[in-house]
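User: My collaborator and I are trying to settle a disagreement about how two of our proteins should look. Neither of us wants to argue from intuition anymore, so we agreed to look at predicted structures for both before our next call. Could you fold the first one, then the second, and keep them clearly separated?

Assistant: That sounds like a sensible way to settle it. I'll keep them separate. The first protein:
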Amino acid sequence: MSRNFSFNSLQRKGVLGFVLLISGILFLNYYLKNKFEPPSDFFIDSEEQIKIRNFIDSVKMVKVSSTPKNVIYPFNPNFITDYRAYTLGMSTLEFDRLKEFRDQDKWINSTEEFKQVTQISDSLLKEIAPYFKFPDWVNQRENRIKEESISVSVAIAKKDLNTATEEDLKEINGVGEVLSKRIVLYRNQLGGFINEIQLKDIYGLKYETRMAIMEKFEVQTPKDFKKIDINKAEVMDLLEIPYIEYELARRIVNYRITREGIKSFDELSEIQGFPFDRMDRLSLFLKIENSH
């Protein structure tokens, strides 16, 4: 039995070498672990490190809080472009409903009507409605409707602004001989008013006086005028519209040709000299159809 478990000289050397190798590996592992392992308090922040990190965090918070948010400026919802709709958070479907409504030459004159047409969500409407800016005559009309709804006074029949005489107009407080002549003269130059909003063009006519006129007068027989498609109009066509002179008409046509069509009234503000502040009156004469 003893012969079976005996080792010769070469085998004993091999076993001894293996034992020494294992011992060396264990020793090296122990040595390296104790030499390079950081002390137990290595990862504990010092007071100075905590101050530095707190300072960095405060700087980050200031940077985030001072980042400017998207600013919404007052705008007329009738002239929303597809890009403006995107920035406001409107969906493509909501904008398409608005565009289809406007393509029919219809106008949105209240927040409620905007919601009805676009079917926009209440949450988004609540966010953007405070920035709606309708023409002052629309706001005045809405206020007048509200007042009339709670008024018990008997309504007085209005007269036709297109047939009113100077004497008729003088009955309005604030309208004297000069203003009455200007109103009648301007009406004759136009060939008749299309809408009461055109009273805004009467020089010297104050807002309060204009509102007083509109309480007793309205355009009952508007001038017959077919709206001009700005994407088909030539220079001579545009000259039929008040506020547009030859040079401006030429610029509009050149702009349209360069851009291969005009898609929205907003684009007209890019044309030099275009009276965009009169867009509410110009829209009585202009329309935009598909440019293709």
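The second protein, kept apart from the first:
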Amino acid sequence: MAIRPVVVDINHADASREEDGKHVDLIDWEKVKEAGILGIIHKATEGSHFIDPMYHERERKARAHGLLWGAYHFMRPGDVGDQVSKFISVVGKIPASGPPFTRYVLDYEDEKLALWQAERWLELIHTVTGQRAWLYGGGLLKEQLERRHHNALSQFPLWLAEYGPVAKVPPLWPKYVLWQRTGDGIGPGIHDVPGIGRKQDINYFDGTDEELEAAWWGHPPPQTIGV
């Protein structure tokens, strides 16, 4: 099966407007489902203080439409433990034994960060929740890994950001679990998602619906090899 665009990652700035100081959700969830989208990964927190104001409302709506649900933390410089605590306080300690399940993700792209901070965040999440969160990264992650390998990161599946026709996976991982191939209108393939809007972050998976769900839950993903 060819890779397919089946996951969208969003935050409060996508498909919303402000009314009286509050964000109003403009996503048409039926259209999203009809477009073949299988999962949503939504921003939950950033740094030690920011909480995405649309997170909980959209979680309820996405689950009601049968979509896989994920939450990402946008890491910033600062106390790693505080950032883990903030994230868990928002998304909850999700049991891995049954629904509802939330896929945890660390968004690693702030140039002021060091790899040990990502490693520490991922390890703390695993200790507290038992889940091995996915690590989202692209150019910064590759650049830093070229200077110094952090082999412990290989325990955590890679969600690769690579806006091009080929997935160039860092040697630390034999494969990616998800590939963000398009973002902000950049990259090959489709850029728009019915029900959400134009120039979305669109993520590809190489496998069946069942294999995506298994990978989401943390079971071994298919052997998707980067070149």
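Some points you might bring to the call about the second protein. The chain has six helices and eleven strands. Residues 115-129 form the longest helix (15 residues).
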